[in-house]
Amino acid sequence: QGGHFVRWNRNIEQVTEYSADEISKMTPMDFFSPKEQKLVAERIKQAFVEGEASVEADFLAKSGRSIPFYFTGVRIKLGDKYLLTGVGIDISKRKMAEEDLKAALAELERSNKELEQFAYVASHDLQEPLRMVSSYTQLLAERYEGQLDEKADKYIGYAVDGAVRMQQLINDLLLYSRVSTRGKPFEMVDSHALLGSAIRNLAVAIKESGALIVTGELPHIRFDPAQLVQLFQNLLDNAIKYRGQDPPRIHVSARDGGNEWVFAVSDNGIGIDPQYAERIFVIFQRLHTRVEYPGTGIGLAVCKRIVERHSGRIWVESEVGKGSTFLFSIPK
């Protein structure tokens, strides 16, 4: 009333460290710093005009201590006078939690960037020494095969195989890190046309497996063109590789999900046990031996990284022996 307090509870005295006599002579603005007084005054005015208003601001105690509060004020009428009644909630714990979360997210972002950089540098710098190891072990195998005993030939074979697999792992790690470090700007692309590029890249595998790929109408989306080709190519390659007794039958479609497009790549392959639905997207995780199905287990991890770079999500719906449907969503 008249900018001064009419009535208050004892808690305001404890929080602000002012006595009842002091508070009776103060206005609400006396409890806020100059930088916040304007905002608080605007909210008080809004409450008198509109009937209600809220604001977050720091309460200043007599000692100078600052306490974050959330205030809500409601206009009331007593007789012929309008007054403002309100409550304040100490949000110190919430503010501390928000700061902790911000710090954790900043640390996570920094850690991810360092990890990406490490993966790129490590895989890049390991190429040359590994190439030398691989070359010399293969040379040993070519020149001395049959000249040593059977065990020596077997050991050399292990070394050659290990070097080749390590080379593939390093190449795949480099590919994985480049999703973020070498990604291109997003642009509007014709997903149907880029699916066609992926199909052409897999022409040999499609012919050898007798695969049939059917596509529905696909939309234009904002995407890194090269990475969309890579995404389609990995999913199609996966469907061809993990086929059953019958030739692969693959259907690629998309549906309007409101604020996103949901793509689906369905196949008639061997399927996946639902308990492994998340594991298959982890880098270098495999459900089968290299003898059964070659590869390092990088393909779906790259798909996940590409989709997440575009603020989407990817998942699988499958049953063993009944084929799989890989779905990914992309915001419009």
Poorly predicted segments: none
As laid out across the biggest beta sheet, the strand order is 5-7-8-10-9
The largest sheet, given as strand count, sense and whether it forms a barrel, is:
5 strands, mixed
How many independent structural domains?
3
What's the CATH first level of the largest domain? Alpha Beta
Strand content: 15-25%
Spatial separation of the terminal alpha carbons: 52 Å
Q: Which shape, going by the Cα principal axes?
A: elongated
Helix content: 40-55%
The sequence of SSEs as H and E is HHHEEEHHEHHEEHEEHEE
| CATH superfamily label of the largest domain | Histidine kinase-like ATPase, C-terminal domain
Radius of gyration computed on alpha carbons: 32 Å
Just name the CATH architecture of the largest domain.
2-Layer Sandwich
Oligomeric status of the shown chains? single chain
Q: Topology, please?
A:
Blueprint: H1 10-16, H2 20-24, H3 34-50, E1 52-60, E2 66-78, E3 81-90, H4 92-144, H5 150-181, E4 187-190, H6 191-201, H7 203-209, E5 212-215, E6 220-223, H8 225-241, E7 249-256, E8 260-266, H9 299-309, E9 313-318, E10 324-331
Helix pairs in contact: 4-5, 5-9, 6-8, 8-9
Structure overview:
This protein is α+β, with helices and mostly antiparallel strands and 332 residues long. It folds into 3 domains: 81 residues, Beta-Lactamase (2-Layer Sandwich); 84 residues, Helix Hairpins (Orthogonal Bundle), CATH 1.10.287; 145 residues, Histidine kinase-like ATPase, C-terminal domain (Heat Shock Protein 90), CATH 3.30.565.10. The chain is built from 9 helices and 10 strands. The strands form 3 sheets. The chain has a 5-stranded mixed sheet with strand order 5-7-8-10-9. A 3-stranded antiparallel sheet has the order 1-2-3, sandwiched between helices. Strand 1 and strand 2 form a beta hairpin. It starts with 9 loop residues before the first helix and ends with a strand. The model has no long low-confidence stretch (mean pLDDT 85).
